[in-house]
Amino acid sequence: MIYLDHSATTAVDPRVLEAMAPFWTEAYGNPSSIYGLGRRAAAAVEAARAQVAGVLNCRPAEIVFTGCGTESDNLALRGVGLAQAARGRRHLITTPIEHHAVLHTAADLAEHFDFEVTTLAVDRAGLVDPAAVAAAIRPDTALISVMYANNEVGTVEPLAEIGAIARQHGIPFHTDAVQAGGYLSLDVEALNVDLLALSAHKFHGPKGVGLLYVRQGTRLWPTQTGGGQERGRRAGTENVPHIVGLARALELAQADRTDENARLSALRERLAEGLCARIPDIALSGHPTHRLPGHLSLVIQGAEAEGLLIGLDLAGVAASSGSACASGSPTPSHVLTAMGFSPQEALGALRLTLGRANTETEVDYVVEKLPEIVARVRGMTR
């Protein structure tokens, strides 16, 4: 199989598995226990927290470990939103291209907690205009949430500029950085963010663990209560092996990202050029340069994604039509329609995302096979 769906998930790095292994069978204690086995587990959690803080350029105490990126986004929006609502602030600013972890949570706050949500427009490339963010700010704005890099089209947003605007107005700024974890700088000071969400399985760590960076001084109401773990911000026994795995995976990804990004960008260009030369009525979606290095998103007219994905699967290629969370959905991508693509165009969306194991030979195979699949799918719909 040729795996071209790294934006959906990634294989766990063997070095990550090696770091995790002792905490399943040897140092398996509960970190809240006072005896030696528990203290060893607690020490591993705190060492992982320090590792992550080193990557993010923050204090270890500002890291909250969670179950996934979706939980991190939920905690950010509800935790800050409800804390701000207690002060009379019930206005959120976000974009229409966010992951549903953000959009559905914002909608829930609007429906059940009387929040107002301003959803900013994006341009044809999926970029948010920082001036539009500034214009949308109100005295009762509680939180601004703009994703770092889009999961469906790969566009990277101008976070530092938006964050500077938020800081000037004293408004907490959250970013869903789930897609950026393995590829972009995560320096929270340079990005001007107050909350940042990550998920380990997007950068060769295990599924079932994520984190939320929360800048010191940010008011955050816990949305999961109980034993008071994570300094009272997220109750529940810590998932020690997965937390250790997240920290190791993040260190490895960030250490290798300069060279790996260059390699992935070259592979992506080879793939894009080959497909665009051989498939008529095909368009690239997302920003041409401000984008994730291994992310190629296409809109192929006259060929619905479901048929393309089945054809690719039969040819031994794993790909997607956009967010893995929306796979199998017959509705057009909310990201592409927000960018100005028609619903019919959006049904022809194809996402090919490259990763560590991909090679030029694999790219050339896809360039050979996909035009045949497109022609066959188009012929079936005529």
Main beta-sheet annotation? 7 strands, mixed
In the CATH hierarchy, what is the architecture of the largest domain at level 2?
3-Layer(aba) Sandwich
Give the % helix: 40-55%
Secondary-structure-based class equals alpha/beta
Quick structural gist:
This protein is α/β, with parallel strands linked by helices and 382 residues long. It contains 13 helices and twelve strands.
Topology at a glance:
Blueprint: E1 2-3, H1 14-20, H2 22-25, H3 36-56, E2 63-66, H4 69-85, E3 91-94, H5 100-113, E4 116-119, H6 130-136, E5 141-145, H7 159-168, E6 173-176, H8 188-191, E7 195-199, E8 210-214, H9 240-278, E9 282-284, E10 295-300, H10 305-314, E11 317-318, H11 334-338, H12 343-346, E12 349-353, H13 360-381
Parallel strand pairs: 1-11, 3-4, 3-5, 5-6, 6-7
Antiparallel strand pairs: 2-8, 7-8, 9-10, 10-12
Q: How would you describe what is shown here?
A:
By secondary structure, the chain is of the alpha/beta class. The chain folds into two domains: 2-6 and 257-381, Aspartate Aminotransferase, domain 1, CATH 3.90.1150; 14-252, Aspartate Aminotransferase, domain 2 (3-Layer(aba) Sandwich), CATH 3.40.640. It has 13 helices and twelve strands. Helix 3 packs parallel to helix 9.
